[in-house]
Amino acid sequence: MGHCRETEFNPLNIAVLTLSDTRDESNDTSGAFLADALTEAGHRLVARRIIKDDKYLIRAQISAWIADPEVQVVISTGGTGFSGRDNTPDAVMPLFDKAIEGFGELFRYLSFQELGTSTVQSRALGGVANGTAIFCLPGSTGACRTAWRGILSEQLDARHRPCNFVAHLKSAKEMPSS
To answer: Which of the chain's ends, N or C, has fewer CB atoms near its CB within 10 Å?
Structure first.
């Protein structure tokens, strides 16, 4: 794990995708939490979208971001449960070059501390495709907070030891300041 040699923070270009048939910008608290948390950490929010929980719309949007040289990380919220409309894992898994099995396992462990056995109904997952890290979280703001604070804030920080995901991501051009 000697690839983690960075001593300075390296801001990443992150896209946030909310998957919902009912949410819009006025009530998307999960997407808003993720956008705020990543920018407070020093990363750049390069895109934020809300789309219907439809397998092909999800796959199309995430594929576009995987192909975009500016996007290094995609974090989605919603669609990871067991209902008929929960399509995120089915849409996203075929896109992975490599799955990050430990992400879902660790998320469910952390979530178990808060929810007990109900966490087994989460199909949260992570993977890498074309040098883009993809993390699919449940739709609740609490679940997004658990994933961000318990996993993502450290794993998306180049200074975190003994290892993190930053060294595995594609390089992106510097985004202009807004």
So the answer is: C
